[in-house]
Each structure stands twice: as structure tokens, then as C-alpha cells.
From TrEMBL:
ATP binds at residues 30-37. It holds the Pfam family UvrD-helicase. Belongs to the helicase family. UvrD subfamily. GO terms for molecular function: 3'-5' DNA helicase activity; ATP binding; DNA binding; hydrolase activity. This is DNA 3'-5' helicase. Residues 9-293 form the UvrD-like helicase ATP-binding domain.
Amino acid sequence: MGRRRSYLEELNPAQLEAVRTLFGPVLVIAGAGSGKTRTLVYRVARLVEEGVPPERILLLTFTRKAAREMLRRASLLLGRSCERVSGGTFHSLSHQMLREYGRLIGFSPNFTVLDRGDAEDAINLLRSSLGLSEKGRRFPKKDTLAALFSKAVNQGRTLAKILEREYPHFFEYLPEIERLFLEYQRYKREHQLMDYDDLLLHWHRVLLEHSEVRAEISRRFEFIMVDEYQDTNWLQAEIVRLMAEGHGNVMVVGDDSQSIYAFRGANFRNILEFPRLFPGTRIIKLEENYRSTQPILDLANAVIERAREKYTKCLFTRRPGGQKPIRYRARDESDQSRFVAERILELREEGVPLSEIAVLFRAAFHSFDLELELARQDLPFVKYGGLKLIEAAHIKDVVAHLKILLNPFDFLSWHRVLLLLEGVGPRTAEKIITHLRASSDPLRALSSVPARPSYEKGLRRLTQTLEALRRISSVEERLEELIEYYRPLLERIYHDDYPKRERDLESLLSLAHRYQDLSEFLADLALEPPESAVADLEPETEKEDHIVLSTIHSAKGLEWHTVFVISLCEGRFPSAYAVASEEELEEERRLFYVAVTRAREGLYLCHPVTGYLPGEGRVILKPSRFLEELPSELWEEWREIPAEEAREEAASAGFRPGDLVWHPQFGEGEVREVLPAEKIRIYFLGHGEKTLHLKFARLERL
DNA sequence: GGTGACCATCTTTTT
DNA sequence: GATGGTCACC
């Protein structure tokens, strides 16, 4: 009882209302840092406490990491039972449900999930077989086609409409593109394949067409909560509506100012539609910010104030004082890297743990230079976003074999696997596949494939390996055996850098360790890929103290003591691809808003004035318009003083007790005493007395 | 038909 | 830096 009292007392009135409203539809508009996660966590705890079986609560989050973190926190409040709460992403839930109910629309429980790369491969295959890739034609490439198809599904628009608006130069190919789209859908169905969009689409269809499933699901999940609702699309909203049809107990939480996934069909207006979808919705607004200091919040508010459309009000905080955001004008990218590394070293000196520092950027490749610098300085970091382990070609090779074991009709994977053999090219692979296709057991049929001498040996080795793998059940052992088989192929195909790639295979193996079930392993690889990028996937580093480098998209929902936003220049942020339309630009602005609201105490905004742009080489980079439009009283320019100059200046000018000074970290202070060995004791407002090195402290006289 | 070497191209963000 | 396309050669 005491525990319950105490946790409810920690909430403000709005949060409390959200936690206490258990029945009926609720929409929570939660500004950045307004204790949204805490509210969800407490509500889960509250439901469990009221006697709702945890597995009847469904918590839909943007990543599974987010779900796990929330359930962990709920467990701290109320004990282990909270971990049994059902949770995950829309995609993983749909996947799970389709394994159970997919039969109703003709899918075996062993269907294969295509990630983006797989989908592109399939499209490419069909594109050539339809004769659409003859040379001399400017027919769209596989990645464009995949993006196009995905948009059509996620935004619920026709191909013609999207082409007309966004790819007018391809409009002449509309009939062919439409044919390819149909062909792609047929191909997936025929081979028991689903891409990301199909997971949602098919689950939606099951719900729509089978009222008995809807009823069952409503009983199974009596309470539904959705986080980051501003980043859902119409299809996801529909899924929620249908799943909750029996009871209407749905709480969605979101912030329209943080909507950053329009490019994949998310629509922040979904938030406003919610009350229409669920009549009688209670709306609760969380506007008090518990995260950032006032100067950071002032800047954030200024960013979002310029947004064309916004629905939430200004955030306020009770954390006055603190250091103004600092803007740094770097000569070039390496100067920017040096600057960031130096500040990080200083912060560490001041006692800020590395895990409390993050560097954020618009696109994954913006941090390449910094990564080198951090490595030179021996500063440990983990990078999120960008090329993931699972996307590396050699990992996909290995995984394709596993997919075949699970779904022998996955001829897309067959294609990939066969191409690896020496002496087998696209034509031969297709010929072999035609043979396999005729059989009801393609794996078995492999041994009877008529083979030419040039590749007979390789084919036989593949056959034997697959046969052997079929008899093993442990995921880890299977993978070990498979890597044994694959290693010689790896060395032949990637002869330039195979040792590096071999290490990735080891990482994959260590991931497999946790799994008993192959289908689970493969599904997780596709739906919840390990977030960190290639090559730093050591489980040990997870616990170590390290800096986070992350794309802003991957940093959503997280916070740090100090945040650096780098490469804030035109063409990079906002991205050159996003300046064409007002809407895209608005999304870039919200992205910037998300970036700055990640910071609690310290915020650095960096922009190199020269750098490389694709195609043009080294050019002058203009500061990002998002920086330029900020009122100058909201930030301070970092004044770089070379260490030697600073020392001379300090020595010659000579600080005296009573002098007023300013320090970038601690703000305004008064000199108390000048100590030997270039040290100085200063009293800072709000920070107390500090002893600083004149050599390192960048003091300014006031 | 397959391979390997050379060239150009273009790099957003994610389930 | 990786991918795609083209070409010469086996």
C-alpha cells in the first residue's frame, strides 16, 4: 500500500489523470520530456495492480527496446509479473498474429519475412524477367520501385498519384510499373513471402474479414496502449481500431511536434483523427517538461514555433538557470570532430559519464570523420542507425541458407544461395530453380539437379550441407556448421576484406546463442535487427561506459546530459533531398526539434563551413537555416582560444580575486583565489566553488 | 554462360 | 565505399 501511495504521489495532475483513466479511449498529447514514458509505465503498473492479467495488456511501441525498457521499469514498481505484458512493434505483433491466423488468408505459419533489401532483390528479379531492364531505358531502379510500392501501401494512395507528384520523370512508365507491382504481389503470395508492409496489410485483412478473430483479439488484449502515435499511419490506426472493437480500451500517446516518419507514410494528423475514430475520447495534455533546463527549452520552443502547423502549446520547465546552447563554427569536418572530442574529454574530466553524452546527426555517414577521431582519442562509442549487421551482404548470404531450411519455397533465398557457387550465374541459378520448383520438396530435389561439371562439386557440397543442417535442431549449431561451409565461399567472393567480414559472422553466431527456435531467430533478425551497426556488436560493450553516436531518428525517446548536434549545414540538415517541398522541410524542422529536446543540461550545435558534397567536392557550406533563424539571444558562439594564447593571456592579464568571469559550462562566477601551477578557484552561481586549470578552462572576463 | 576488372554514380531517415 | 553497369575474355 505504501508503495502505491508513493508512486502516485510522484505524478503531476495530468499524468495522474492519464494513469487513473483505465477504461475507454484516451488520447495523451505529450510534449518532449513531459514524463510520457513514466506515465505509460505507471499505467501498466496500475492495471496490473487492479488485477488485470499482464498478458491481457498490449503495449505497442516503436522499437522493442522501448517496450522492454518500459516493462523493466514497471517491474521495479510492482514485481516481475509486469514482464509478462504483451509488447512489441506493430510489425512484430502482426507477424506473431499472422503466424497464428495467417492460414485464414492462405499463408503457412512458416512464411518468410522480407526485409527491405530482400524486397528489392525480388523486385529486381521480376524487373529483369519482365524485360524492363534493357539498356538504354531509364526505367526506375529497384530501390526507387521499392520505395514507390511501399508508399502506395502506407499512404493508401495509387501508384499513379505518387508518380505524378513525386516522380513525374517516370510517369511514362506507369503501365509497366503497375504491372510490376501486381507481379511482385503475386510472386510474394506464391512463395509465402511477406515484406514489412504486407505484415500490416495482411493482419489488417484478417481482422477486417473475420469478425471471430476480432472478438478473440479483443478478449485476448483487454487494454491496448500505443506509444509514439504521431508516427503511425492509417493502416496502423485501423489495426488498433479493429483490435479494440470489443472494448474500446485504448490509450495512445504522442506528440505532433515530434512526428518524423512521414517518409514512410506516418501522418501526425492521425493524432487528431483519433477522437473521430474513437468517439468519447478523453484528451489529456502533458506540457510540463522535466528534462531540460530553461535555456535549452527556450531554444526548442523557438524551433517549433516556426513550424507551420502545430497543435501542442509551449513547454515549460521548473528547471531555471543553466548554460545557454553553444554554437560552434568549425573550419571543416575534422575541426568539428576535434572540437567534439575535446569537449567530450573535458566533460569526462568534470565527471560527466560518457554514457551521458550523445552526438546526433541527420544521416549515418555524417559521423564517419568523428568516428575516426574518437577512435584516435580512445573514446569508446556505440553507433546507432546506418548500415546494420543484417544488411551486410555476407550476413545476408548466410541467413539465406537458414531461410531455405524454414521455407523451402523461398526461391528468392535459393537464388542468392545458388549464385554463391563458383560457376553458377543468374541463368544457371534460374535453371536449377525451375527444377526445384517442380518438386514438392525442393530441398530433396536439389540432389537430382542435372549439373554441369564446372559447378557440380560446389552444388554437391551445398546439397550435403543443407541435408546435414536439416538434421540439426539447435540454432547455434546449425549456424556454426553453416559458417564452416560458407567460409571458403566468403574468402573467394570477398577476397579483399574477408577477415573483417568473418568477424561479423562471429557476431551473428553470438546472437544466435539466445535462440532455440529458428523461425524466431529469423523473424527477430528481420523485425528487430540488432540496432548497433556492423563491427561493434560485442555484448560486453553494452555495459561499458560509452558515448552514443546516433541518427536523430534512432535517438527518439532517449535523453542525455549533453548532446552535440553536428553537421548543421544546408544540404545536410536539412537534407538536400528534403528542401523541395514545404512538408518535407517541416519534417526536417521537427527532426531538429527532436534533436535539441534530447538534451538535459548541455547542448552544442556545430556546423563546418567547408566540406564535401556529393559530386562537387570541397565546397563552402552554409549554416543550416534552422540555425540561422534562431534568435541570437538564445545561444552563444563558442570562441576558440588556442591553449597557448589563453595561457599567455591569463598570465599577463592576471585574474584577481573578485573578478567576474564566465565559463562555458558553469556560467557566471567570481574569482576567489589564484593558486599556483596555473590553477584558479572560482565560485559559480548554482555550481558552487570549482578549482580549474587556467590551461583548460576557457574563462572570459565579464 | 560465367568471371573479373573497370568505370560511373550516388549516397536520408526505418519497420 | 558500395553498388550497378559494361566489356573483354575464358
